[in-house]
Amino acid sequence: MRENYSVLLVDDEPPLRHVLHKALTTRGFSVEETGSAERAIHILAQSSFDAVMLDINLPGMNGVEACQRIRAQKHAVAILMVTVRDKETDVIHALEAGADDYITKPFRLGELVARLRAVIRRSAAESPVASVIRIDDLEIDLDRRLLHKSGGVIHLTPTEFDFLALLMKSPGVLHTHNKLLRTIWGPEHADQLEYLRTYVRTLRKKIEDDPTQPKYIITEPWVGYRFQSAEDTATNSSEDRGE
Questions:
Q1: How far apart are CA 175 and CA 55, in angstroms?
Q2: Do residues 236 and 218 touch, judged by C-beta distance below 8 A?
Q3: Is 1 a member of any domain?
Q4: What is the average pLDDT across 106-117?
Q5: Beta-carbon neighbour count of residue 166 at 10 Å?
Q6: Regarding predicted confidence, which is higher, 46 or 80?
Q7: Closest by alpha carbon to 50, among 103, 123, 109, 111?
Q8: Domain boundary at 71, 88, 122, which?
Q9: Is the peptide bond before 106 cis (omega within 30 degrees of 0)?
Q10: Which of 174, 26, 160 lies closest to 92 in space, CA to CA?
Q11: Average pLDDT of 43-49?
Q12: What's the rounded Cα separation, in Å, for the pair 5 and 28?
């Protein structure tokens, strides 16, 4: 089943817009496109969308500035940034501008579709989170602070539970190192990256079938972590094969 999500595609390369427009519409998306950030902001003032796919390198106002303007206007829209840059600082600047996620060019279509759906799901963050979240063979009870895997109880420390709960509340969404450290451990730990990596290693030993080949807690090198379900993995793979 494919949802009919609406997407505003912002890219100054007409051939790429054409390809993406066709690819997304065949997968159930409703797409409007433009080649400039200024025009995109005008369109958003007139119409609502589930997501904006926003290129960083745009003529005039760039994508990062446009993202900041969109967030300043309090548009409740998911934003997926697109960039040819893969440096850590470039990605972090995009995320700190208010983007929900990023993807680098060239990208695989399956990954693009999976990322779009993930950021759109996150845009519903105003909705109450269910007290029990089930993803594949994991079930986390937020009220009772319990985690089950395949029916058995997995014992977590309070910090491990808070960390995993944050990830499972928004599957597929990228959380930066800085955000995780500040949210779970506090601002004073914002630079203690090894602290975070230690907890990730411990959690993977508890919830992953093979901690060396994690299927749940996925590392985005130099940037952060995301929680991935088997459904997201399958969707990504099948889309890449054109299924």
A1: 20
A2: no
A3: no
A4: 86
A5: 17
A6: 80
A7: 123
A8: 122
A9: yes
A10: 174
A11: 86
A12: 7
Q: The domain containing residue 153 runs over which residues?
A: 132-240
Choose among 163, 167, 165, 82: nearest CA to 122: 167
Question: Span 171-185, mean pLDDT?
Answer: 85
Answer for the pair 134, 147: CB distance below 8 angstroms, yes or no.
no
Q: Which residue among 74, 102, 122 closes a domain?
A: 122
52-76 per-position pLDDT tens digit: 999 998 989 999 999 989 888 766 7
Beta-bridged to residue 79, according to DSSP, are: 52
Task: Return the number of other C-beta atoms located less than 10 Å from residue 201's C-beta.
Answer: 11
Concatenating the DSSP letter of every residue in the chain gives -----EEEEE-S-HHHHHHHHHHHHTTT-EEEEES-HHHHHHHHHH---SEEEEESS-SSS-HHHHHHHHHHTT---EEEEEES---HHHHHHHHHTT-SEEEESS--HHHHHHHHHHHHHHTTTTSPPPSEEEETTEEEETTTTEEEETTEEE---HHHHHHHHHHHTSTT--EEHHHHIIIII-GGGTT-HHHHHHHHHHHHHHH-SSTTS-SSEEEETTTEEEE--HHHHHHHHHHHTT-
